[in-house]
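Predict structure. Chain length: 305.
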Amino acid sequence: MNLCFTPLLVIFRCLAAMHGTSPPVVETTLNNFCLYNSSVIELEFDEKSGKPVKATYNDIVGPAKEFIKLLCFLGVMYSIVDVTGYAPFGPVDKTGEVMTWVFHPKHLANNFFVAYITQLNLAAGTSGAASTVSLLFGKKTKKVTNNAMLQSTSVSDFWGRRWNQLVHGALKGGVFKPLRKSNFSKELAATATFLASGLIHEYVLAVMCHSYGSGDDYFHHEKHYYGLHLAFFLYNGILIVLEYAFIGTVLHKKICDLSLPSPVLTCMVIGTALPIAHWFTEEYVRHHIYDGLKVGCPMIVQINH
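Prediction complete.
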């Protein structure tokens, strides 16, 4: 998966460099520029000195500990999957009208379960990579994920500050900022950014689901259905645009005045996309991509005699 994403990150970082929309300190020196663009995980720069922040012992060991902790947690989740499959709350009949099952509690719970496994895999992978980069480069890295599934307080908070900040930073510099710099509206720039994200994920899925070889050595996958990832990200782009329009309205002010607890806000945010979360996760399940990721996790499995 990383081999698919890395060239794409380079492309969007190049677009940012071409339009002058890279993070400000990145282009102050050639050293900063090379360090920023050569690192898989984004490095942290000191805005005052304009230099990359040196990694401390905790910057190296902390992500390594996080990686081990998340790996064990994933082991628990995959142990459940080993018994129940990716629908631990029970199967849902999807043969009827869409509206009769898309909001079914079992469907929503199953979607949350698989989406949370996605978050854990992303967090574990990037934590391990961050520790390795800090060890090799001696530089501090930015945190890629921040518990979006359980702590987001708005749709923009979910995508802009908590979920996969690595891709977010590349798309912001390579798509959103260049469009805003060209005087396109914030709404159009956001929609184009999510369109680009959808296309990225379609490409990555197509590469991972590609079949190789011939005859007896043919590595066969089930048929890949294009468009679900693109539709998922376009839908979330629309949610961002609606949020832009909603902020500042009378209803928004009244909700703010209620001072709702953070868990309630998180449920509201996650609930906006949870009914169609399977558009993103279903292809990964069908093509056994999650199963491939569980290989290194410490699992409890049933031994058949």
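Summary: The chain is about 65% helix and 0% strand.
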